[in-house]
Specification:
Layout (H helix, E strand, L loop, with lengths): L11 H18 L20 H16 L5 H13 L4 H13 L10 H18 L4 H21 L2 H25 L5 H8 L3 H6 L2 H14 L5 H12 L4 E3 L2 E3 L2 H9 L2 H16 L5 H14 L2 H9 L2 H4 L3
Antiparallel strand pairs: 1-2
Helix pairs in contact: 2-3, 4-5, 4-15, 5-7, 5-8, 6-7, 7-8, 8-12, 10-11, 11-12, 13-14, 13-15
């Protein structure tokens, strides 16, 4: 049989029509998906109502520093956004100010102090059921009294165990100030949240501890291999490998977990859940993850979410 019966030659016009139709069908069959990409300008919002802009400002203030804007703050932010047609750069400037301005302000110390306190409390809610610093301090006081008693009676093994307990509780409280001073990153705060006696009481025994740590920090449960190696590391102090690192105790487990690429992915999921009430799309994850693994800068992720029309409800 003639080969041309199977592969007939297209004339130029027919070929052009075929390509156009095929391309049109391909485009129409693709599902459109919103992708957050750093540097893109949001949609121009000339037709956005004043009330929508005010709602956006109010949401940014509440989500970042835990309170509504004062009347003067609302007026100033509204004017800035209206004058510049809600440009991305203006939105980002307002967000950046709330995250970083350390100017003294009555009742909250500064914008940055309020922002860091809000992050700190959100981490405690995620991992420690939102216990107060006062409660943590009361546990420190109890352990300190016990340590003093042990020292007087010469019970040094018990004394050093209590001292370690105190150190872990203090690490939780101190993480807030250290985050404010930029001495640690947000993933370090989560490390303190899962490495103390209160967290151990919430998630009794190693089985529950390992599963809870994966779930609350990585937003997923461990694989069978991950669980087995993590359990051996924490419970039996047997050298084991997770995320391409070897550890041999609970401290190693926490350190490996919070410095893993999976933790960076988990914090991006956390930010999307907190501020957009949804998980990031695969393309959004790909967009943010490489830089976030390098920097660990949670401010970058939060600001890129808050600057969008989706967060502002301008769509």
């Amino acid at each position: 049989m003639d080969r041309q019966q199977f592969f007939p030659k297209f004339r130029p016009v027919a070929l052009l029509i075929f390509v156009c139709v095929a391309t049109s069908l391909l485009i129409s069959s693709c599902k459109k998906e919103t992708i957050l990409i750093s540097g893109n300008e949001p949609v121009s919002a000339v037709n956005i109502s004043r009330i929508k802009i005010e709602n956006y400002i109010q949401r940014v203030f509440i989500d970042l520093i835990g309170r509504e804007p004062l009347e003067q703050e609302m007026t100033e932010a509204l004017q800035r956004l209206q004058v510049d047609s809600l440009k991305r750069s203006v939105r980002m400037a307002i967000i950046y100010e709330l995250m970083n301005d350390e100017s003294a302000r009555e009742g909250e110390g500064s914008y940055r102090a309020a922002y860091i306190l809000n992050l700190y409390n959100l981490a405690k809610i995620r991992c420690m059921e939102g216990v107060s610093d006062g409660y943590i301090q009361s546990r420190i006081n109890i352990a300190s009294f016990g340590a003093l008693k042990d020292s007087l009676e010469g019970n040094w093994d018990s004394f050093y165990r209590r001292q370690n307990t105190i150190r872990k509780y203090r690490a939780v409280i101190d993480s807030r100030e250290q985050l404010f001073d930029r001495k640690i990153k947000f993933h370090h705060v989560f490390g303190t949240m899962i490495n103390n006696g209160i967290y151990d009481e919430i998630n009794m025994n190693t089985f529950n501890f390992v599963r809870a740590a994966f779930d609350e920090l990585l937003w997923r449960l461990p694989t069978e291999e991950e669980f087995e190696n993590s359990f051996q590391m924490v419970e039996n102090e047997v050298p084991s490998r997770i995320f391409d690192r070897i550890g041999s105790n609970k401290e190693d487990f926490v350190d490996i977990l919070i410095h893993s690429p999976a933790m960076a992915e988990g914090l991006i999921i956390w930010a999307f859940q907190i501020y957009l009430n949804r998980v990031p799309s695969p393309l959004e994850m790909i967009t943010f993850l490489p830089e976030f693994i390098q920097t660990g800068d949670i401010d970058f992720i939060i600001s890129e979410i808050m600057v969008t029309d989706e967060y502002a409800n301008f769509r």
